[in-house]
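Standup notes
- DV: blocked on the single-chain target, sequence here:
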Amino acid sequence: MAAAPPIAGVRKPSNRDWLDCDRTFAEEADKVILLLCQGSDDAGEHAMQLICNYKESPLAYTILAEVKLARMNQQMAKGHLNSAKVLAPRCPHIAFVLALVLMRLGFWDEAVVECDRSLGEPEPTDPAWHCPFPKIHIDAIIRSKAPKHRIALMRERIRRLRFRAKKGNRTAVPQKPLSSAPKWPPESVDVDRARYDWGRMSEEERQAFMTVSFEDMKSYCRSGGLSKQMTGVLSDAEEFVKGFFEWKDNESAESWQESIQRYNQANLRPEVLFFEHATAGTLHRKV
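- DV (later): unblocked, structure below
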């Protein structure tokens, strides 16, 4: 009786992108991104270590380029993005960021060529695969929509970038700074992550999270240089809310439950309110 053929081994992840990586790569990449978000000087060292461990990973080069961009080192970012492009020539995200860096360096013609190269790609890959976002966010983005929606959005950004590169080359007038962060459609926002975080909160944590301080909001408006008229509108809104909900300094748990019931009657799910609050917090940090 002939011996049974050997069982084929399970293919190891290539660690080239978020869709095909193992847990170790994801943890190391997430650590670099976290350090970058925190503004830590250690981000560069860990990003270089990521490259040393995964020399064939275009995602690793993209993350390192993001670190260099945060340090305002456009020339180094350009080199790493070129390496990423060689490893993942079909990725529209890499092409967009590379063209953007070329524009910042004044290489208008090269930026146009890079845009044309990417727009001429017949089978572009999902731009989310090589985005320097935490993996949990990427997973939620990938689940939210089909890849064709993100590809179409990124290709439109590349077309607009190409137009600006052509215009900048003709006029030699400095263009407004552009962001390399991908702008996903509203449907692609991390709703799943918001729902997950909301479900892990206790009732007390939910109440504290949904508490709004009008004094903090007015202070923020003043610090942002908003007009007195806008601050006045916020004050009017405060009075309206106080009158509508009959808030008092010694608000009881019963009155809070009544407020929650009013939200429920308006068909507003708690996780939706949580997500809206979280989104506002994100915008607050970016201002």
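- Follow-up: The chain has two domains: 18-185, 193-286.
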